[in-house]
What we know:
The chain is an alpha+beta fold. It is 51% helix and 15% strand.
Amino acid sequence: MTTKVSIRFYKDSKVRAVWDDEQNKWFFSVLDIIGAINEQEDYQKNRNYWKYLKAKLKKEQSELVSATTQLKLLAPDGKRRMADAVDHEGVIQLAKSVPNNKAMSFLDWFTYSDNSIDGQSRKKAYTFWESNIIAEDEIGTVKALQKIHAYIFGGLYDFAGQIRTKTIWKDGTIFCRAEYLPRELDRIERMPQSTFDEIVSKYVEMNVAHPFMEGNGRSTRIWLDLIFKHALKQCIDWSQIDKKQYLHAMRLSTTNDSAIRRLLNSALTDQISDRELFMKGIDYSYYYEQVE
């Protein structure tokens, strides 16, 4: 029985994964891996390539073929269909079997991505769904945001959950000066959060404040969804929001938040109890933070 899905992003290529409860591990789409390595988006071409490579490996009596399993993945036509998938070790074997000098770059990314701080915190973020650490009366508070940050970055950053005491900036943009931050966070916490516009305004202001040394975007997007769920019985389907459009809209939001309002509004859904939607949201949230 499969209960969790995940999307990893390699140079903007999606590599889908499915959690298998029986074997207690992730399995990754073979066609996605081949497409990522070959930088090929055409589904049929990737399918043909795998057919050729699979026959070649079978003749060589490669263990990879026997280790390949079939799990349901979302096909291009929108339906879930059985597709070839391999586990972590299988991904490594597959990448090494592709006669392409780009394969090693993919392999370096794959072996690093799960062990990096981002990889470790993403795994913790997946489990936030079952955590129930935020009480209903804490939703939209600074305390709730600190709890989220502490949960996903605990043990990875020594400042997890702690409001920064240093002034920081990014890409030439300076965030709220540290000496004014406590007062600013108090003001943001008291902002109303009953309507869509009020919630987005609060989110934008929290982004400008940037209360943590690192990990602000990933924790604040979870914080935002909790507010939407509580106030509007809706949440954001982050997989519907393009990375470049989102980052551009957030940069503009410091002076004009109309673009981020449009993006968020277009991705609103009432599927607040959909665990798969939450998992995809985490994947996209971390994808937004990947440096190009």
